[in-house]
Structures are given as structure tokens and as C-alpha cells.
Design goal:
By secondary structure, the chain is mainly beta.
Amino acid sequence: MSTRHARPLVAAPAAVLAAVAGVTTVLTAVSWTVRPGGPVSLTSGRLLVRDPGTGTVLDCTSSHVSGTLKHGSGLPGTGLGSVTSGSFTHCNGPIWLPFTLTATDLPWHVNLTSYNATTGVATGNLSHARLKLAGPSCRAVIDGTSGTAGDGIIRFTYTTSTATLTVLPHGGNLHFYNPSGGCGGLFTGGDRATISGKLSVSPKQTITSP
């Protein structure tokens, strides 16, 4: 093939090539539409908190999170909403030791970063996150860069069709800090912390971009 004929192929837009190849396009969104917005409530049937370093898993069967979302179109993804309260109860650790998790350093910030128009799934994160963990004789903090920073990041996806927020165990920066009491062997300070689970959002929010 001559150089004269090859140049148009090299210059073909990436979007056209993706369409021809049948690749699903995920866009880094710069503006968002949220309806109806306002107060929201999230509940979970099951949420898992892990210390991969020790293998400890907390299985929480009752979770409730409240917050607000902005309403309208042309909204920026940063600071699109806030988490104003959060509690995670009926959490069982090894040998059924009871634990509770409580959201602190509120409000947390809701941020959206990308949107898959094919699946209707938005990806984002909760920032400024910090949680306190308490058991019968064990206390610890889950945070980002230190036990007092209040800069934890939790990644999630939101699916409009099912009104489901899925907490992703990877991509955030959570760690365990300041374990005390009878935490020996359960949580180690500085270990990575992961949270995973699905929460139902009420009322259902329709979130799209643009």
C-alpha cells in the first residue's frame, strides 16, 4: 500500500474505529444529568469488609446510608452529592464476633467520573470517607492515608435500570489504622481495607451523561 493511501487510515478517528470493532465506549464525563435528586436512602442486604493481609472478613447484613444528590442537567461530576449518615450493623467477624461500622468525618462527597451509555452504568467514588470499627474488645479506624486524615476513597458504580449502587473492593485507598484492644491477629495497622457489596437506592435515580 502506498503512503498516499495509508494516511487516511492512520488518521481515522478512534471513535470510528471503536464503532467498527464493536467496542463499547466508556466516556470520561464532564457533565451529568440527575433526576429527581434530593434526599436519598441506601440499604444493603450484605456488605463485606476485608483485611486481605490477615484474611479477616466482616460480614454485615444490615446497612443504611443517607445523603443528598443535586438535581438537574449540566452538573459537574465533582461534589455531585453528599453522604450525611451511615451505619453498618449485624456485622460478624471470625467465630461470629459481633462488630459495628460507623461512618465518620461526614459529610462524605459523591463524585462521578465516567459513564457507559450502552449499559447505563456510571462510575464514581465517595471521598473524604472515614469509618470507625468496634467489636467486643477491638477498635480500629478505616481511612485513607492515616487514622485521622479523613481522606478515604471508596469506588462504586451506579446502575440506573436497577437503582443499584455497587461498592467496588479495588481502586480506592482505604487502610486499617490504630487497632487496639483485642484486635490482635484480626486487623493490622497499615493493612489495606476493602469494602464490597450492593446497596439499593431509594428513590430511584436516573443518572446519565451528558
